[in-house]
């Protein structure tokens, strides 16, 4: 599970280096396209014998999947990766708290909200210097992550294993690829872009999915949630090591608030663990 967390966040850090080359839509199209080829080649999902309800579940999953990636990569273009991941985390935390209806979890969400306020720089920074668009994209990615959890469970009821994810990724790629071509043009298929895109696809999709499948057979949902809560910290480490991004003490304190809230909510989760996340 730790390997999965590290892989996802270093994949995100690598994506930051791809964004200046081919933009947000181009990066998402390349990352989804290569990941789809690898995942479909591995799983070989069959479209035969699917009902209208099956395709509806896959389509909803695909819409959320594409939107989540576009919002998250858009936030990465404007914010340090540690800040973007921390802000994004508010989505699944709110969903978990609403579903649990425990006072402890609601208080944990307030703690996370305070952490996001610190991480965003809203305290002590003039409004005209805040990157409101980046913050809103991060919150949008968080909302999509919450919707991703819901739609992935819906797809899980209609498809075996990761077949629903593979089909949804294919559908999302078909929609996003034309946007990527418009934004990036021929640069989308440059050797550098393809090499980085392949690295992102492996680090952000194929490797973490494989590791999480193994981890979920051995770990309780509580331990899984606690380890997942380390993502903001690992993202900050990846941002420092790969991108040279340094966060202020105030932002680091806010990040710890969110991690603490995540441990309280996800670490005490009742029921199945979180599904793999395609970000």
Primary descriptors:
0% strand, 279 residues, single chain
Give a short synopsis of this structure.
This protein has 279 residues and is mostly helical. 80% of the residues lie in helices and 0% in strands. It has one domain.
- Radius of gyration computed on alpha carbons: 18 Å
Total count of domains: 1
The tally of beta strands, per DSSP, is 0
Give the topology string: H per helix, E per strand.
Answer: HHHHHHHHHHH
Spatial separation of the terminal alpha carbons: 16 Å
Helix content: over 70%
Please tell me about this protein's structure.
The protein is mostly helical. It has one domain (2-266). The protein contains eleven helices and no strands. It is globular, with a radius of gyration of 18 Å. The two termini are 16 Å apart. 51% of the residues are buried.
Layout of SSEs?
Layout: H1 2-43, H2 52-78, H3 81-88, H4 90-100, H5 103-120, H6 132-158, H7 163-184, H8 191-218, H9 221-228, H10 231-243, H11 249-266
